[in-house]
Amino acid sequence: MIRIALVDDDTNFHIICSRYVREFFHANNRMHELRLYSSPEMVIYDLKEGRDSDVYFLDVEMPGMNGFELAEKIREHSPEACLIFLTSHTELVMEGYEVKAFAYLPKSLAGEKIRPALQRFLDEYKKKKKKAYLIETPSRFERVEYDEIIYLYREKKYAVLVLQDRQVHVRKPLRVVCEELDSENFMFIERGFVVNIEHILRLADRDLTMRNGDVLPVGRTYLKTVKRMLLHFWKDRI
């Protein structure tokens, strides 16, 4: 069952969004649970009680605690939750990427934007259940989920997978590992570096800042492609 949380202090908006969400999941024959919250404090209480959700629709402008601040609290409990921001001010879009926003929907277009956003979530939800890289050596087997991989780099005869809390060495060329990953989310930014585009926070000049704080150099010959792919990836989430 997929759990969806709608957080908005406007209860009239609850009614509108609830209809679109229920229609989508019924049309896709998917069991779901829809939780309605009128304040961030109610969400935080449920998180502390272990009642988290798979998808959060967050109103950006709420009294007391705004949607971005609530998103930071959600990330502490649910690092992989899907965060979809709702607002009347699309100029705030970049702030959402600090908390790994999945999408950013203008409230005035909620009716036509919610279904495509949920469809994209559902497509990725299905993929994530299967997407993992299997490391096999004579002494160990290890499964690393794609979402865990922030970036990879070459170190002599090894490809090194950089995760949030550790690094994993694979005795294979970096290009071979990238081919085995076989995902458009992984791209070369230099001959010795491959990044997971989902974990990029910003690009300034030729410096790429990743979600774990590491800053990686983008090669001059790769810069145009990196900009194009990053812009396309972020535009899909607006």
What does this structure look like?
- Helix content is about 30%, strand content about 30%.
- A hairpin with a 2-residue loop joins β11 and β12 (about 195).
- The strands form four sheets. Strands 2-1-3-4-5 form a five-stranded parallel sheet, sandwiched between helices. Strands 10-9-8-12-11 form a five-stranded antiparallel sheet, with helices on one face. Strands 13-14-15 form a three-stranded antiparallel sheet, with no helix packed on it.
- The protein is an alpha/beta fold and about 240 residues long.
- It has two domains: about 1-130, Rossmann fold (3-Layer(aba) Sandwich), CATH 3.40.50; about 130-235, LytTr DNA-binding domain (OB fold (Dihydrolipoamide Acetyltransferase, E2P), Beta Barrel).
- The chain has helices at about 10-25, 40-50, 65-75, 110-130, 175-180, 225-235; strands spanning about 1-5, 30-35, 55-60, 80-85, 105, 130-135, 140-145, 150-155, 160, 165-170, 185-190, 195, 200-205, 205-210, 215.
- Pfam families: LytTR, Response_reg.
- Keywords: DNA-binding, Phosphoprotein.
- It comes from Eisenbergiella massiliensis.
- One of its GO terms (molecular function) is DNA binding.
- This is Stage 0 sporulation protein A homolog.
Structure, briefly:
The chain is 32% helix and 30% strand. The chain has 238 residues and is of the alpha/beta class.
What strand order characterises the main sheet? 2-1-3-4-5
Helix content: 25-40%
Largest sheet: 5 strands, parallel
CATH topology of the largest domain: Rossmann fold
The geometry reads as globular
Protein name: Stage 0 sporulation protein A homolog
Keywords: DNA-binding, Phosphoprotein
Pfam families: LytTR (PF04397), Response_reg (PF00072)
GO molecular function, one term: phosphorelay response regulator activity
